[in-house]
């Protein structure tokens, strides 16, 4: 139900909420102030639980599909020069995750991890044009015989201050499985062949492990 990356903060928040509620019940005389403190602490706990939820997803495995690696909204679909790994023009599809989205990262295809690199960086807002190259980020390339090499990039945002990446070089991964976590929202970029047949559009909401980004790669 909840992602393992959230167990510690959920436990700490729950304990603090309990202590604050008990303390305020016995030591805050004002009824309004007491209830305000209790409701606020409970609201924060609910937000934390929301951030770290991990709903089960049944991914329909398909070697010809590239699926959404995260929940969120499509904010970019454009041809760009990908300079880190491919060093050639690729089709970039970007998914923005708000703090209310599920923050689990999932493998977009099955295959072998052939590239995995972490970059420290800034914490610009996730929709900033330069966030993809200036923010803290990880770049992962997965390769299989059907679609070739696909790069996905986890990007930290203004709130997200920690990226968790489970991919390791030479690891064999399965489409839709847990690939990591970005705490408190951010963005994920996919870099696909330029002539990819994209099945999503700007502004569309997608579900990680479910929504098909491309159904055929040229």
Report what the structure shows.
- The protein has 218 residues and is an alpha+beta fold.
- The protein contains three helices and 13 strands, in the order ααβββββαββββββββ.
- It has helices spanning 7-27, 31-51, 131-134, and strands at residues 66-67, 72-82, 88-97, 104-106, 111-119, 137-144, 148-156, 163-165, 172-173, 178-182, 186-192, 205-206, 212-214.
- The strands form three sheets. An eight-stranded antiparallel β-sheet has the order 9-5-6-7-11-3-2-12. Strands 4-10-8 form a three-stranded antiparallel β-sheet, with no helix packed on it. A two-stranded antiparallel sheet has the order 1-13.
- The longest helix has 21 residues, at 7-27.
- It is elongated.
- The relative contact order is 0.21.
Total strand segments = 13
Q: Give the overall average pLDDT.
A: 89
Computed CA radius of gyration, to the nearest angstrom: 20 Å
Shape: elongated
Helix tally equals 3
Helix and strand composition category: alpha+beta
Helix content: 10-25%
H and E string: HHEEEEEHEEEEEEEE
User: Strand portion, in percent?
Assistant: 25-35%
Distance between the amino and carboxyl termini: 38 Å
Give a short account of the largest sheet.
8 strands, antiparallel
Question: What is this entry, summarized?
Answer:
Helix content is 21%, strand content 34%. The protein is of the alpha+beta class.
Walk me through the topology.
Blueprint: H1 7-27, H2 31-51, E1 66-67, E2 72-82, E3 88-97, E4 104-106, E5 111-119, H3 131-134, E6 137-144, E7 148-156, E8 163-165, E9 172-173, E10 178-182, E11 186-192, E12 205-206, E13 212-214
Antiparallel strand pairs: 1-13, 2-3, 2-12, 3-11, 4-10, 5-6, 5-9, 6-7, 7-11, 8-10
Helix pairs in contact: 1-2
């Amino acid at each position: 139900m909840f992602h393992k990356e959230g167990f510690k903060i959920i436990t700490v928040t729950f304990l603090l909420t309990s202590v604050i509620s008990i303390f305020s019940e016995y030591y805050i005389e004002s009824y309004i102030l007491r209830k305000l403190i209790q409701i606020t602490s409970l609201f924060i706990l609910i937000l934390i639980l929301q951030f770290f939820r991990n709903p089960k997803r049944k991914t329909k495995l398909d070697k010809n599909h590239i699926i959404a690696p995260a929940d969120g909204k499509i904010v970019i679909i454009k041809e760009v020069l990908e300079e880190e790994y491919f060093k050639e023009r690729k089709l970039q599809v970007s998914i923005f995750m708000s703090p209310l989205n599920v923050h689990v990262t999932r493998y977009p295809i099955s295959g072998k991890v052939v590239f995995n690199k972490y970059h420290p960086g800034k914490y610009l807002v996730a929709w900033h044009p330069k966030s993809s190259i200036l923010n803290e980020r990880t770049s992962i390339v997965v390769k299989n015989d059907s679609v070739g090499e696909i790069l996905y990039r986890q990007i930290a945002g203004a709130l997200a201050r920690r990226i968790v990446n489970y991919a390791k070089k030479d690891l064999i991964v399965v489409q839709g499985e847990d690939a990591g976590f970005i705490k408190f929202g951010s963005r994920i970029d996919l870099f696909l062949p330029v002539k990819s047949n994209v099945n999503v559009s700007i502004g569309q909401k997608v579900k990680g492990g479910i929504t098909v980004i491309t159904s055929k790669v040229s």
